[in-house]
Structures are given as C-alpha cells and as structure tokens.
Amino acid sequence: MTSTVTDMKALVGRLEEAMNARRLDELDDIVAADFVRHCEATPDVDVRSLEQFEEVLRQDAAAFPDNVQRFTHVVAEGDQIGIFATYEGTYQGPLGPFPATGKRASFTFAGVFRVAGGKLAEFWITWDNLTILGQLGLLPAPAA
Q: What domains are defined for the chain?
C-alpha cells in the first residue's frame, strides 16, 4: 500500500494525538507490530516492536505525567516523514538512573519515520540530553 504525503502527515498527527491523550490502544492502527526505534540519546533502550514502543511511552508518561509533545514541523517525501517537535513536562520520575526532581523540562527533538503498509514502521529520533538534565537540576552547577 502506498501512502500519500497527506496520508503520512495524518498518520503522524494521529500518533501525536494518541500519545498526548495517553490512548495507547489507538497505536495498533498507527504503528506496525514490528516497529523499530533508533535513538542515540537512549542507546540502552531497545525498541523492536509496537509493544516495546508502548512500554517506552508508558514509562515516559509515568516520569512526566503531564508531558505534551507537539509536532511543529512535518515534512514528507517518499516513504519517510520528518518531524521537528517540542516536548514539555514536569519530572515526577524516576526515569533510568535519575531521581524525580519535580522540575519542568521544555526542549525540542527531531526524528524521521519510515512508513510501510500505511503504518509507522521505523523511527530515528534525537534530542539533547544535556539540555534536559540541566533543566531538571540533574547536572552539577557550573563553576563560578
């Protein structure tokens, strides 16, 4: 099945809505069962299925229960669709080795999805961990 640019933009729009509303049951119609996520910012998080992707989203929502992600720029070509996005949320944690701080983070991230069979099949995503850790108070204060 070939997806048009309009179809692909609608698909990532549905993903954005489902993630922000915490309606992970809707992902069955949006994300392929064998979905793969690549992320240099979290090299120890291996995602090779829809179920593992849903678990990552559940953990993220537990750590940042009020998080909102907005896809501010969406560009599609061929079978790929790129996003530039914002993420905001209060760190109620824990997530990974870091304790909850109750502080708010606001940052940008970018990614590219590959679409196959009318679903999101693969995702390359990146963000700046130092920006986030600094906002959350998890980095040492700079020397005076």
A: 5-130 (3.10.450.50)
Asked whether residue 94 carries a pLDDT value surpassing 90, the answer given is no
Tokens of 47: 């995602």
Measured CA to CA, the distance from residue 101 to residue 36 in angstroms comes to 31
CB 71 within 8 A of CB 12: yes
Which two tokens mark 52? 């593992």
Who wins on pLDDT, 96 or 21? 21
Residue 142 clears pLDDT 70, i.e. is over it: no
Per-residue pLDDT at 3 exceeds 80: no
Report whether 108 contacts 78 (CB < 8 A): no
Under 8 Å between Cβ of 122 and 34: no
Tokens of 137: 């108070």
What are the φ and ψ backbone dihedral angles of 30, each rounded to 5 degrees?
-115, -35
The span from the CA of 84 to the CA of 12, in Å, is: 12
Share of the chain above pLDDT 90, in %: 90
